UniProtKB/TrEMBL annotation:
GO terms for cellular component: cytosol. The lineage of its organism: Bacteria, Bacillati, Bacillota, Bacilli, Lactobacillales. Coiled coil: none annotated. Residues 368-398 have a biased composition (Low complexity). It comes from Limosilactobacillus rudii. SUPFAM superfamilies: Flavoproteins. Residues 334-415 are annotated as: Disordered. Residues 1-146 form the NADPH-dependent FMN reductase-like domain. One of its GO terms (molecular function) is FMN binding. This is NAD(P)H-dependent oxidoreductase. Pfam families: FMN_red, PAS_10.
């Protein structure tokens, strides 16, 4: 279980930070708690330029993938700190990352009443329509007299407060598990519906069941992602060991939400060029995770040419390139003669067999030959094409492999 714990202040020293560090260590057998600072976030403003919201975007991604969120708040002037209010504004303005997310409120202060008033305010905020979290009811963690409640090495030494913390956190873990079970049962029901597995689609070239369609996307050695015509992340293929890791929590997000802010202008330029009919494909060969990969963006259009969205096609081409570099295409397709006559491995050319019919491309008629296919090594676009300085896209739609890669659905640099 992954829990994100937010330090509710930008102060360099805070007992709320000490509390979360204690919880991370004390409850390590129950959950993986990641402590998140908020001091690098800009003050909330609707006019903050997108280019200055990188830290905001990173925080949203962590909140989105966490199973639960803990807000630890001190109390300033009977309320929560301005930095914490600003953080919640970022997490609730034009985004749903907090929606239905299991949340818990804790707090430490110097006074005898602990952070009671600020926690009441924090709970009201988290239950507001814009946040709409699944807030753990009751279970108040109120730690006062902070300087006497913690030891110098950060341990919570007040027995009564420690027992209460343990009870409340246990309830929070159980609370998260309830929602996880509900979500899993809902997913299982959708998968087990017989009407879905038995339904089929008639294509011009044949018929496929929905189950077959799903498994085809899971089996092909390349991954696909779709940004729909309204610029929302709509779908990704459920392929094991993806180059670009996706999460269902990102589905339905806008291009702006699911991309790092600095990548949004580049991604939108590609999408708009597809929507306006200026391009149909953008290609980016690059190194990913230690191997050579190919990323291609395609304009998805209906039979009448109307724009339906942008498809991102990603996959490792290491295996194909190794075949080429090891001479897999060294046989002349017309004559069957090896280009390296002195190589023993190429003395006997294997016949090419149609996978669907089993028929060899060669036959008894010596006058019939199959056209040869020419394979050329990749050439840098910087040497052959004029490249757009803004997006890195060449006139033919390809992109220099040395340019920084912006993933069409995440915008994350691969460098």
């Amino acid at each position: 279980m992954k829990i994100l714990a937010l330090v509710g202040t930008n102060a360099k020293f805070s007992y709320n930070r000490i509390l979360l560090r204690y919880m991370k260590k004390h409850f390590r057998q129950m959950a993986d708690i990641e402590i998140q600072e908020i001091d690098k976030l800009p003050a909330f403003s609707v006019d903050t330029p997108l280019s200055e919201q990188t830290e905001v975007w990173k925080l949203k991604q962590k909140v989105k993938t966490a199973d639960g969120i803990i807000f630890s708040t001190p109390e300033y002037d009977h309320g929560i700190p301005a930095a914490l209010k600003s953080t919640v504004e970022w997490l609730s303005y034009h985004t749903n990352v907090l929606k239905h997310k299991p949340t818990m409120v804790v707090g430490v202060s110097y006074g005898r009443q602990a952070s009671a008033r600020s926690q009441v305010q924090m709970r009201q905020i988290l239950m507001s329509p814009d946040c709409d979290t699944n807030l753990l009811p009751g279970n108040e963690v109120l730690i006062g007299n902070a300087s006497h409640s913690f030891s110098k090495d950060g341990r919570l030494v007040n027995d009564q407060m420690r027992d209460n913390l343990e009870e409340c956190f246990t309830h929070f873990v159980e609370y998260i598990q309830v929602f996880e079970k509900v979500n899993k049962e809902g997913l299982d029901m959708s998968v087990k519906q017989p009407t879905i597995s038995e339904a089929y689609i008639n294509f011009p070239t044949g018929r496929l069941t929905l189950k077959e369609v799903q498994q085809i996307f899971s089996t092909i050695p390349f991954e696909l992602d779709l940004i729909d015509s309204t610029d929302h992340f709509a779908w990704y293929s459920d392929k094991p060991n993806r180059e670009h890791v996706r999460n269902v929590a990102s589905l339905g997000e806008t291009v702006q939400e699911c991309h790092p802010p600095k990548a949004v202008p580049v991604v939108m330029k590609i999408i708009n060029s597809f929507r306006n009919g200026e391009q149909d494909v953008v290609t980016r060969p690059l190194w990913m995770n230690g191997h050579r990969s190919l990323i291609q963006y395609y304009a998805l259009r209906d039979v009448n040419g109307h724009y339906l969205g942008t498809i991102e096609f990603t996959g490792s081409v290491e295996y194909i390139l190794n075949l080429f570099e090891n001479g897999a295409w060294s046989t002349d397709g017309n004559t069957g003669a090896s280009k390296h006559e002195d190589s023993a491995d190429n003395q006997v050319a294997e016949e090419s067999v149609d996978a669907s019919t089993g028929a060899s491309e060669s036959n008894d008629n010596d006058d019939t030959t199959t056209p040869s296919t020419t394979v050329t090594a990749p050439v840098s676009t910087t040497e052959t094409e004029s490249t757009d300085a803004t997006t890195g896209a060449s006139d033919s739609g390809s992109v220099d492999a040395n340019d920084e890669e912006a993933d069409a659905t995440t915008g994350a640099s691969e460098n």
